[in-house]
Amino acid sequence: MQSATFTLTPSLRLPKPRRPSASPAVNSRFDPIRVSASSKPNNFNDALSASLPRRSWSLSSSSSDFKLRPWTSVPLVDSDAGTKRFEVRATAETADESTESGSSLFKTLELGALFGLWFLFNIWFNIYNKQVLKVFPYPVTVTGIQFAVGTVLVLLMWGLNLYKKPRVSGAQLAAILPLAIVHTLGNLFTNMSLGKVAVSFTHTIKASEPFFSVILSAMFLGEIPTPWVVASLLPIVGGVGLASITEVSFNWAGFWSAMASNLTNQSRNVLSKKVMVKKEANMDNITLFSIITVMSFFLLTPVGIFMEGVKFTPAVLQSAGLNVKQLYIRSFIAALCFHAYQQVSYMILQRVSPVTHSVGNCVKRVVVIVSSVLFFRTPVSPINALGTGVALAGVFLYSRVKRIKSKPKSA
After folding, report:
1. Which pLDDT tens digit goes with each residue over 129-175?
2. Mean pLDDT of the 89-96 span
3. 58-67, 110-119, 337-346: segment of lowest average pLDDT
4. DSSP conformation letters of 206-225
5. If residue 49 lies in a helix (H) or strand (E), which one and from where to where?
6. Structure pTM?
7. Residues 6+ apart with CB under 8 A from 236
8. What are the residue ranges spanned by the domains of the chain?
9. Which of 52, 260, 295, 391 has the fewest Cβ atoms within 10 Å of its own Cβ atom?
């Protein structure tokens, strides 16, 4: 049979076929089509390749075999390599997903640990602080000690580079000063209330903070509350009133001190919006709280010495028949927890929305009330417990409906 030669010139770079790796036995049984990449080309094709400098393919047909020979060596597109690349990419995507899920789980655990510390520090502060105020009825001195310990912790934090030391201008300090004043008064009034009435009753009264927040925001910021917000205040006011009527440890000094604490604390929140402190890159909430703590210490210390004198020396405490070592330890733990729970509170606020933080604050108040009742064995009547529960339910409702914004009136 005559041999016919055809030349195909592809426009694309054609792949080089692979040599089949079959055994000789298989080739002898079945070899209808054999793909060869032999290094011995046909003579006619050699001449044609020399005269035409282009890539071509020789298709030879004979009675013996049928060969497809490339003249140029073209790299083979390996399908296995593509599969390997796909497998590597899929493995990388799976690794990224597992890393993201692991990071999300770590953040959830971290947030849960912060909430746990927030509640725990609050419980310890209220218990140890109440124990100190029972035997040492000087709330200004006790509050000053708490600010002193907080100031030392802040300076250590800045000195050891645990947190970046801020650069504060005189204008910023002047703007922060009103916040420091109301912050100082708020904590002072809280300690005055804790020294007069039960811990559970103080925190029941402090549950009425949303009431003062709505009134002050409407008066100074022009924020008109929605009907839902106003409705949520009714159970708060009613619950606090019911708990106050049936409170065994009730006295007017403790009641009005807690109310004054609500007023000053919410004034601080309104002032922070009204003054609009210009924050630099290093002026976050934790830094602002640290500066306020230091300023509160310097504001309250001379007032405490003037009003109560120097009452915390070992000689004075021993003359009063007090256990000096025990009082010092409890005061230090209370002050440490006082600063720690506020620091953790700001750390949580940086990670969650204000609504979530408000709900957490409501749960924290419930935990503090229940733990103090159990620890101090405070007598609670059913009506008193009902009033406390209604007030706390109102706080929770307030934190939820605060997100509902009134629709803007159409022109």
Report:
1. 999 999 999 999 999 999 999 999 999 999 998 888 888 888 888 88
2. 57
3. 58-67
4. HTTHHHHHHHHIIIII--PP
5. helix 43-51
6. 0.71
7. 207, 208, 210, 211, 391, 394, 395, 398
8. 4-70, 115-401
9. 52
Task: Residue 171: name the closest of 274, 290, 280, 269 by CA.
Answer: 280
User: How many other C-beta atoms are found inside a 10 Å radius of the C-beta of residue 197?
Assistant: 24
**54/46 Cα distance (integer angstroms):** 12
- Of residues 349, 365, 358, the one with CA closest to residue 403: 358
Select from 150, 129, 279 the least CA-distant residue to 196.
Answer: 129
Burial 383-396 (b: 16+ CB within 10 A, else e): ebbebbbbbbbbbb
AA identity, residue 344: V
| Structure token digits, residue 343 | 């620091």
Give the pLDDT score at 389: 92
Partnered with residue 70 across adjacent β-strands are 57
- Tokens coding 253: 């000094």
User: What is 258-297 written as a DSSP string?
Assistant: HHHHHHHHHHHHHHHHHHT----TT--HHHHHHHHHHHHH
215, with CB counted inside 10 A (0-12, 13-18, 19+), is: middle
Torsion, CA 110, CA 115, CA 116, CA 121, rounded to 10: 120
Q: State the CB neighbour count (10 A cutoff) for residue 58.
A: 19
Q: Residues of 339-378 as b/e, b for ≥16 C-beta within 10 angstroms?
A: bbbbbbbbbbbeeeeeeebbbbbbebbbbbbebbbeebeb
Indicate the average pLDDT of the chain.
78
pLDDT score, position 78: 53
The residue assigned the tokens 């953790």 is 344
Residues 6+ apart with CB under 8 A from 264: 182, 183, 185, 186, 189
Inter-residue contact 291 to 166 (CB < 8 Å): yes
Q: Single out the residue of 71, 63, 16, 64 nearest to residue 42, CA to CA.
A: 71
Of the ranges 21-25, 84-88, 371-375, which one carries the lowest mean pLDDT score?
Answer: 21-25
pLDDT tens digits for range 261-274: 999 988 887 777 66
> Which pLDDT tens digit goes with each residue over 322-368?
999 999 999 999 999 999 999 898 888 888 877 778 788 888 999 99
